[in-house]
Design brief:
Structural class: alpha/beta
Distance between the termini: 58 Å
Order of helices and strands: HHHHHHEHHHEHHEEEEHH
Number of helices: 13
Strand order of the largest sheet: 3-2-1-4-5-6
Low-confidence stretches: none
Oligomer: single chain
Strand content: 5-15%
Number of strands: 6
Length: 283
């Protein structure tokens, strides 16, 4: 089978986990290739996400690596054999790959947690708000590129608005709620949408008030996506070059702890709802 020209974040993650299992077993790619009657190049392609792996191959690799975590093995098999072609594939070649990777990770997440300081989270943005953000960040972006970005951001909301929504909790700083992105009408509509989502029970929103003492997380923006097993969780952090995907266990543990610490600085959901309701009267 010819190698893929492009590996998605999910395919790369599968390869990464197989590599980690191999390294934990103290085996080199050459040694594994000999066991499977394969080549080092083929093993490397699988570990880079550039080649697929069948259920049989994943289970054989796990056996050679002496992995006894049945839940992890089943989860890796599910990743390897998943043939889902999600709505985000329609944007491949139209938008940068990080757009599709983010949507795919959200789609497969067992839960989502997010921290937003300066902007309303993408999953809660109205079309007008998203358009205002993209227009400001990318001035001069032609309509042929701007419209797909806005559409993609709106389509992402399916994970929290479907018949079986993914549990989603977000911490939004008061700054993000008060900053007028676009005109006053856009900001007011944005606040009402957040309230509507809260009332539908689709999301849990907690506000970090501006007056909160001892809050040093103003530079933090992140999403945390739960995997089928804890080891397969994924963190998404804003980086100078775009979104950075985090999957190293030590870094994931830092993100888990950071989210909990920031949650302690936020208002309870009911108080947050009332807080946002008061803001709508001011807007």
């Amino acid at each position: 089978m010819a190698p893929r020209s492009h590996a998605t974040a999910r395919q790369v993650r599968l390869g990464t986990e197989l590599r980690r299992l191999r390294e934990a077993a103290g085996l080199k790619a050459r040694e594994v290739a000999e066991l499977l009657n394969s080549t080092s190049a083929q093993i490397s392609q699988v570990e880079l996400g550039l080649s697929g792996a069948s259920e049989e191959r994943v289970r054989r690799l796990a056996a050679h690596y002496a992995c006894t975590d049945a839940e992890l093995i089943d989860a890796l098999v599910a990743m390897a054999t998943d043939r889902t072609r999600g709505w985000w594939e329609e944007y491949r070649g139209v938008l940068p790959s990080v757009f599709q990777d983010t949507a795919e990770i959200e789609h497969h997440a067992t839960f989502l947690r997010e921290v937003a300081i300066t902007h309303v989270p993408g999953l809660l943005q109205t079309a007008d708000y998203a358009r205002a953000v993209y227009t400001y960040v990318h001035p001069g972006l032609p309509e042929s590129e701007l419209t797909p970005r806005v559409e993609h951001r709106q389509m992402r909301r399916a994970v929290i608005e479907s018949a079986d929504p993914t549990p989603y909790e977000t911490l939004i700083h008061e700054c993000a709620l008060r900053i007028h992105v676009g005109d006053r009408r856009t900001s007011a509509s944005q606040l009402r949408l957040i309230l509507d989502e809260i009332e539908r029970g689709h999301v849990t929103v907690r506000v970090i008030p501006l007056a909160q003492h001892g809050f040093g997380g103003a530079g933090i923006s992140m999403m945390y996506a739960g995997g089928p097993v804890r080891r397969l969780d994924t963190g998404l952090r804003d980086a100078p070059t775009g979104v950075a995907f985090v999957d190293a266990e030590a870094q994931l543990e830092q993100l888990r702890a950071l989210f909990l610490r920031m949650r302690e600085a936020s208002l309870e959901p009911a108080a947050s709802r009332d807080f946002i309701h008061c803001l709508t009267k001011e807007s």
